[in-house]
Amino acid sequence: MLPAPPGFSNGHTPRSRRGRARGSVVGRHGNVGAGTPHNPPLAPPCTDFDVAYFKAYSHLGVHEEMLKDHVRTETYRSAIMRYQNFIAGKVVLDVGCGTGILSIFCAFAGARRVYAVDASEIVVQAVEVVKENNLSDKIIVLHGRVEDVNIEEKVDVIVSEWMGYMLLYESMLASVIFARDKWLKPGGLILPSHAVLYMAPVTHSERYRESVDFWRDVYGIKMSSMVPLAKQCAFEEPSVETITGENVLTWPSLVKQVDCYTIKSQELETVTENFKFSSMLHAPLHGFAFWFDVEFDGPAISSPNYNLLVDSLSPSDQLPQSSSQNKKRAKSDETIVLSTAPEDTPTHWQQTLLYLYDPIELKQDQIIEGSITLTQSRENSRFLNIHLEYSSSGGRSFVKESVMR
C-alpha cells in the first residue's frame, strides 16, 4: 500500500492499492459540470486535495496493480474490440489514461486520433509507452485535468476507467460527465456506459474473530478491556477486502444506477436508497457488503441517427429495427459486463465492507431493513460520507456513520 498523501488516510489512499489520478471532481459548485453545446460546462477549481490525489497516482505501483487485474483489463479490451467498427476512423478521448493502455487499445481498434488525458506525472511514462508502440501519430497525450486541457474538436468516443471503491469513491465520474458535456458528439459512444452499485447483508465470523475475539485471550492473558478499541479500529471505517458468495446472506439490493449518457453530476452528491432483506441463513449479521457491475453498451439514439450507429456495428451486434420504437440502445445479445460481485473472479476493487460493531444473530427468513445514504464529503468531495440505518424484524433501530477516506 502506498503511503497516504496529505488529505488521505493510510486506509484508503486513492483506491489505495489501486490508484486513479485522473480527472477532477465536480463537488458543489452550482451548475459546474452541467453544460450544453452552446453553454459548455465550467471547470471547477483544483483543490489541495486534488493535487494530493493526482500525486498519489504518479506511483507506478497503483498502475501495476490495475494492469495486473486481468478481469478489468481484458474486459476493457474486449469492449473496445466489440465496438471496433464504431471506433475505427473516429476520435477518442481517454479520461484518466494512466499508462495509456486503453488509448492504445483504441488505436489498435483503428481510432483516427486518441486524446489521452491524465493529471498525474504518470503521463511522462505514457508518452514513452506510446512512442515504444509507434503510435505517436495517433495518440496525443495531454498532461492536466480533463477540465483544463484544450481539445479543439469534438470526439466520437469517450473511454474511461473511472470506478472507485464502492463505485463512487474518488468521484472521478464527474470528470467523465464534464468531458461528455463538453466534447462528445451527439450519438457518441461512452465506455463503460452503465453502472450499478449493489449492497447485501453479510456474515463473516472469521473476520470478527481475528479483529475482536483475539483480544479476549492473548497468550493466556485477559485483554477484554481492549475489545471496544479493537472494534473501533477495525470497523469504524469501511474495509476493502475480498469475500465470497458464502458470506452473503441474501440476494443483493440496488443502491444506485448510473447511465453515463444521461447522468448529471448533481445526482452524485447524495445517493439514498431504502433496503429490505430476508436472510436465507441462520447466521450472525456482521455487516453489509457493497460491490458494482459496469456494462459496455451503445448509447440510446433517436432515429435517424440510430441507423448510423447500427450500420457501424458488426452484424452480430446489431439489434432489429422496429417502427414502434423511436429510441434503441446499440448493444449485443450478450452485453459485456465487468463485475466485482463476491461470486465472480476477484478484482483489485474487491468488495467494500461496512461492519457493525456488534453482530446481530439472525434466523432464516428474518427481515433486515433500513436505508443507506452516500454523500460527497464537504471536506473533500472525493471522500464518501456513509449513513446507514438498519433494524431487524421490528427490533431496535441502529445507526452507523462512517467516512470512506
Brief account:
This protein has 405 residues and is α+β, with helices and mostly antiparallel strands. The protein has ten helices and 17 strands. A hairpin with a 5-residue loop joins β16 and β17.
Strand content: 25-35%
Helix content: 10-25%
What composes the largest sheet?
Answer: 6 strands, antiparallel
- Number of extended strands: 17
- Between the first and last Cα atoms, what is the distance in angstroms? 14 Å
- Identify the overall geometry: elongated
**What is the count of DSSP helices, taking H or I runs of 4+ residues?**
10
Question: Which structural class fits the helix and strand makeup?
Answer: alpha+beta
Compute the average pLDDT. Answer: 86
Q: Order of helices and strands, N to C?
A: HHHHEHEHEEHEEHHEEEEEHEEEEEE
Instruction: Pick out the low-confidence regions.
Output: 1-13, 16-35, 302-331
As a whole number of angstroms, the C-alpha radius of gyration is: 22 Å
What would you note in describing this structure?
This protein has helices spanning 48-56, 60-67, 70-82, 84-87, 101-108, 123-132, 173-183, 205-211, 227-235, 305-312, and strands spanning 91-95, 113-118, 139-143, 155-160, 184-191, 194-202, 239-241, 253-259, 270-278, 283-296, 300-302, 327-329, 336-339, 351-362, 367-376, 384-392, 398-404. It is elongated. The strands form four sheets. Strands 6, 7, 8, 10, 13 and 14 form a six-stranded antiparallel sheet that branches. Strands 3-2-1-4-5 form a five-stranded parallel sheet, sandwiched between helices. Strands 9-15-16-17 form a four-stranded antiparallel sheet, with no helix packed on it. The protein contains ten helices and 17 strands. The protein starts with 47 loop residues before the first helix and ends with a strand. The model is unreliable at 1-13, 16-35 and 302-331 (pLDDT under 50). By secondary structure, it is of the alpha+beta class.
